[in-house]
Amino acid sequence: MNNDTFLTYVQQENKVEPKDLMPDDYRKLLVRQISQHAHSEIVGMLPEANWITRAPSLRRKMALLAKIQDEAGHGLYLYAATETLGNGEVIADRDSTYNDMLAGKAKYSSIFNYPALSWADIGAIGWLVDGAAIMNQVMLMGNSYGPYSRAMVRICKEESFHQRQGYEILMTLCRGTKEQKQLAQDALNRFWWPALMMFGPNDDASPNSQKSMSYRIKRESNDSLRQRFVDVTVPQAEFLGLKIPDENLTWNEETQHYDFGELPWEEFMEVLKGNGPCNKKRLETKRKAQQENAWVKEAAIAYAEKIRK
Ligand code: BYC
Are 285 and 102 in contact (CB under 8 A)? Predict the structure, then answer.
């Protein structure tokens, strides 16, 4: 298909489906983004799983377990959506994309290379990390690739529950003792900047954005989503009585947006290079799980073959 015809097709808000003709670079951009998104969901389960046995009540434990299970489900839809893009030349099957992540060749969100040090961090992850994820993903519901956009509809509904459970954890801590409120403030201090980094580099340093936006894979730029996230999150922090750790944060009457400080981009680049606080640990955990649980996959394949005969 002629590239201009394809661009017109997607820019008129038509959906592309798995067997449709599509340009190679469109297919590759999608495999990259959807598989990275799937890896983020699967690696994102780890910091939270660390707190299942230490959740402060049965109710909190159940909600956390349900959230983590949702994330496994999101990974599943997204790996399945990625697989629909394989065409012999572009490899998109689950084992290959997953092994690329284990080998450090494919990225997952930088945020999951930070540890969850206290119970308040579980609240901050829900509020800020899922909050940032929703901000980004609501626009992805309108992306041009049918299987990805449909997966995003369900994922967004679940993410909004995740965001609320996180905020509710922090609200409880903030209404508790001085020490509990301090735990919440410490969690905000540690997660604020990493959450803003989830939106990716500034627009002028984002090599994929332009093409991705013209193909209607991304619908809004990294900076505009980050700005919207700051604008909705600052009043939520004020409601909790917490202080955002940014001395440059001020309301700008003229733009009707918050101005905020420069992100720690050097730290972002280090995390992307594999040098964040938990990069090595996260990949080791996933590699170990793959080895130790290989028998489950072998048994499932053997059973599927047995019932096919
Ligand atoms: N972390 O050209 P750019 C969740 C990379 S999980 C790591 O702007 P793009 C949850 C980028 O990949 C939700 N890498 O890229 C789960 C590119 O590298 P490559 C995760 C990042 O793709 C469990 C390079 O930097 N959400 O909700 O146009 C518990 C240049 O960037 C990051 C998604 O994955 C980063 N933060 O835009 C709780 C959403 N940022 O590939 C919650 C889907 C950038 O060229 N993804 N890079 O080597 C996207 O929307 C886009 O991929 C991004 C980046 C906005 C993240």
Answer: no
